[in-house]
Amino acid sequence: MAASASYRALQGLRTMAMACRRPVQQHVQQRLIKRGASAVTFTRERQKYSHIERGDFGTVGAAEIEAFEAMLPGRVLKDEDEMVSYTEDWLGQYRGPGSVVLKPKTTEEASEILKFCHANTLAVNLQGGNTGLVGGSVPLHDEVIISTSLMNNVISFDDISGILMCEAGCILEVLDRYLEDRGFIMPLDLGAKGTCQIGGNVSTNAGGVRLLRYGSLHGTVLGLEAVLADGTVVNTLSGCRKDNTGYDLKQMFIGAEGSLGLITKVSIQAPPRPQAVNVAFLGANTYEDVLNIFKASKRSLGEILSACEFLDLESMQLTSENLGLTCPLGDYPFYVLLETHGSNDGHDEEKLQACLEDGMEQGFIADGTIAQDRTQVNDLWLIRESITSALKEDGEVYKYDVSLPLPQLYELVETMRERTEGLAVHCCGYGHLGDGNLHLNITSKEYDEDLLAIIEPYVYDFTAGVGGSISAEHGLGLMKVNHIHYSKSPEAVAVMRQIKSALDPKGILNPYKTVCAN
Amino acid sequence: MAASASYRALQGLRTMAMACRRPVQQHVQQRLIKRGASAVTFTRERQKYSHIERGDFGTVGAAEIEAFEAMLPGRVLKDEDEMVSYTEDWLGQYRGPGSVVLKPKTTEEASEILKFCHANTLAVNLQGGNTGLVGGSVPLHDEVIISTSLMNNVISFDDISGILMCEAGCILEVLDRYLEDRGFIMPLDLGAKGTCQIGGNVSTNAGGVRLLRYGSLHGTVLGLEAVLADGTVVNTLSGCRKDNTGYDLKQMFIGAEGSLGLITKVSIQAPPRPQAVNVAFLGANTYEDVLNIFKASKRSLGEILSACEFLDLESMQLTSENLGLTCPLGDYPFYVLLETHGSNDGHDEEKLQACLEDGMEQGFIADGTIAQDRTQVNDLWLIRESITSALKEDGEVYKYDVSLPLPQLYELVETMRERTEGLAVHCCGYGHLGDGNLHLNITSKEYDEDLLAIIEPYVYDFTAGVGGSISAEHGLGLMKVNHIHYSKSPEAVAVMRQIKSALDPKGILNPYKTVCAN
What we know:
The structure is a homodimer.
Chain A: H1 5-13, H2 24-32, H3 62-71, E1 76-77, H4 80-87, E2 100-102, H5 107-119, E3 124-127, E4 144-147, E5 154-158, E6 163-167, H6 172-180, H7 198-203, H8 211-214, H9 217-220, E7 221-227, E8 233-235, H10 250-253, E9 262-269, E10 276-284, H11 287-301, E11 305-312, H12 313-323, E12 334-342, H13 345-362, E13 367-370, H14 374-385, H15 387-392, E14 396-403, H16 406-419, E15 426-432, E16 437-444, H17 449-455, H18 458-465, H19 490-503
């Protein structure tokens, strides 16, 4: 096959210097350890949520504090400035007063706390790394916050089966490094990996960038331990890959966003770490070309394809403007990041080259670059993973995380861009193309009810109209608690409420969010 | 690398004629369409089950039959000889009288029947292809049998996303052929594929031979439609790969063995059909060598490994003695079947060759053969998949399906062989090595309570003692309904019962089995 001009361009780019590396992750993490008085408006004072009144729960007074301090000596936070990183989310979009932060170290302590809260009908807010994006991880009113951050031990790892058992507060990236030393990899990866906790990942059924390859947590989590609202410990931790003895209870807790119980331990199937990782970053002229890249990559890369992400030009420009990142390619309407995980570098490179050659010959790849080493791999990923932080720099972000049929996926972005013109600072589309998962993000300088009214419920109507899901991976949290009907039938919601009522009859776990008992 | 003597032997075997092909599948299927009076003892007359009394349910009389016939004209079977293939299992080990067989064609009809049964407190037995192995698919007493066999349409298939939607009665192999024409593959495969139905597969969370590669149905099923005990239709069918809106209700029905509702439709993620399939059949001298083959195959074959099955010599001899199959290798204590699914035949063959060379050089592969074409691939699989049928030819089969840690997996077979010596005809160990799933099967000429007392509860005690599961993939059914405590804690069982009570308050769905409300 004769090399085309475009293909030579691709080859030429293979050795280009990558100039986009910036310490964005530190920047994000600094936001999380802030201390002192908060400038964030209480969520309950925002018009959208002002109708959600405090439930008929008990209150935390001196006697309750004393009881908690007896259970968790030195691990009860009650001053507002100590509590600030637990009472507001990292994007500064949701904030509740809360009443107290409790930090158990063991399942027994967590059980004791919940038994007490249940007996006294105290509302509880369960919290992992507090990296959620839908207001699910922080209180709305004066809920007792239970943080899993001190439950952070690896319990066991079996290097034949690849089964990892650990406590809920283990940070995703820490677990991945632990597994790296042993030749394995965590089956999920997401931008917040340096802060998010595995218990929170499982509670929210976090998706991330490698779901395409390793599947969802419903498949990779083998068992878990959870504490129910009344303090009962339900242990379904398993060292087995297969177990068909009764209902697969762990599944109810995966994605329940803490409304059915506090996940305290997790066992998860870790795949072998790939011996070869390749990343290509490609430019495309149309959304149709983006779809063609995906189809071609599925065909040519087959079993080694581990991620197929896309972003539009506006997302790319945002990371340049707000974070100073540099695009490794010229301006194109769309960019696609392809990643392969394989066991044989030679075979994988051959497959990737063939895939890209084919795309350039057929014209649906306009330009591209392939990372030459681990640093370049990280740099290319950094572009994709920095978009969330870059958006925040604009001010207020209206975040939507939807599943859509691929042919209609980008139409929603184009439509919203038209609708919000003049009011929005940016309207960006990016996400997990391989999973049909679009992140639509619109920004304004300050919170704007008029802009919000233009976006919602239109975005939900559009999504439901094409058979999509209004929450692909972020969950319902507080943001979408009243919108579940767009994606679930009344009968399904009724069954969810039956389960919620059965397991949490007083409705103390994460009230006001996800699935309420009534 | 210099070719060793063993490696030359392997190469020599690559072109050997395969002589093991026999029409075993027809043989199995003929059993299922038998008609006329049954010689099988009613399950309730066997000592093990004789204490399970009929529940306090209504009875089916002339009025109920008339009502059913009005709902399902011409699709109500009530004569014993018409009902026989529905009232006993294909192995002839479980049989109930039942009262009537109902064959709805639509969800609406299924809903109407269940509404009627619920109103009249009639116990119901839900049935797919009736290929289960634990007595879950046939009645114990006079349950109304609802068969999904006429609900067998493909609803839609999306060849970009690979998402298939179909009715519950579609036969697994028919679906796989449907997908084959479109370049995709069903994510599960099992010996009963020619008869089992996808609804039953999902209800029992069937595992099968490719779980190692494509994961469990908890990961691949994207949504389903189910009819609850009272006739309510819960539709969570989804065309999305990702959907985090509320609890993942479908998960409760996956593996519930019909005790929470009748699955009527399924949406499932089909992977692209592999462009290259390779199968190797290997001999090993010790169980340690078997484990070494598995470890080496994970390392060398990585992402293309799609099955790692094993059988012992006794299993192999059984297929020769009872079905006339011929082993492609000499006698070895163990045999391992490795399969690869990949997108590049050249790459895959290179990886497989390297894996086998390594194993023969290091001595843990004693001998082996690689299938040269699709017929040989099928022939090698036939050996593995015929063991269940071959066992049945002995007479009575005591079947155990357990998950065990790999190092202890074969110890259970050796121990049971010693314990049952003199009483058993055969004691065979085989199964899904890659998933830690052993099928332990012991046979006798006739049902023997003394032999059973030697096997149980020892087999369950052993399994629980090493942290295994007493049902890896077959489910609890009737056989293990009272043994759930070996694998699940009292707290977990209590939660299962809460869910059962909430969804089926009268306990009419598949009573006496799996998880009973109390």
